[in-house]
Amino acid sequence: MTTPVSGPGDGTDGPSIRPAERADLLAVVRIENESFAQPWPYDAFERFLDEPGFLVAVRGDREVAGYIVADVAQTFGRQLGHIKDIAVHPDHRGTGIGSALLSRAIAVLTARGADSVKLEVRRSNEGAKRLYRKFGFEPLRRVPNYYENDEDAIVMLRKLQ
Ligand SMILES: CC(C)(COP(=O)(O)OP(=O)(O)OC[C@H]1O[C@@H](n2cnc3c(N)ncnc32)[C@H](O)[C@@H]1OP(=O)(O)O)[C@@H](O)C(=O)NCCC(=O)NCCS
């Protein structure tokens, strides 16, 4: 089911956000490869196809411009949302697509009972950290050498209720 945030028919040219489908995966993996030094492989995305928090932003008819992967897990009796991956095609960054994906994913996690959402971000990824701060995420702790190049991760958390 497609639930546009904006797009054809409502007088704007923004992308539609909808659950990811198998036919989107090649485009998703292409964006992933252009976005990360340690990209997720195809089958990592395939495993999340039934997950309501795996969303794509689609421009026009079918062009996948970005995606987000998020889920909810029971941790110490709490329902903890987790933003696992988010990227926007380099040609379409800075146009609000990342914000639209994050906003919709947070709505999905809230609807699924999450009481907070966490994510990991590279310490050097200032653009992503700014995006997350704009959405109310606060740095919680640093995980030394989290990434393969020994870069630290910053764990960020936002309470939902
Ligand atoms: C991070 C990413 C998903 C943001 O997507 P986007 O569509 O460009 O984001 P938006 O256009 O919605 O921008 C939202 C906010 O993010 C921040 N931001 C995003 N990219 C930025 C950059 N390169 N420099 C500074 N701020 C940036 C800004 O605060 C911006 O808000 P503003 O426009 O009001 O200033 C995108 O840059 C991307 O795919 N990066 C590569 C992959 C990545 O690093 N993913 C995050 C892994 S933790």
Automatic annotation (TrEMBL):
Q: Which domain of life is it from?
A: Archaea
Q: What UniProt keywords are attached to this protein's entry?
A: Ribonucleoprotein, Ribosomal protein, Transferase
| Domain N-acetyltransferase residues, every copy | 15-161
| UniProt key word Ribosomal protein | yes
GO MF term set? N-acetyltransferase activity
Cite the Gene3D superfamilies for this sequence: 3.40.630.30
Q: Name one GO cellular component term.
A: ribosome
InterPro entries with a match to the protein in the record? AcTrfase_RimI/Ard1, Acyl_CoA_acyltransferase, GNAT_dom
Task: List the PANTHER family.
Answer: GCN5-RELATED N-ACETYLTRANSFERASE (PTHR43072:SF52), N-ACETYLTRANSFERASE (PTHR43072)
Per its record, how is this protein called by name? Answer: Ribosomal protein S18-alanine N-acetyltransferase
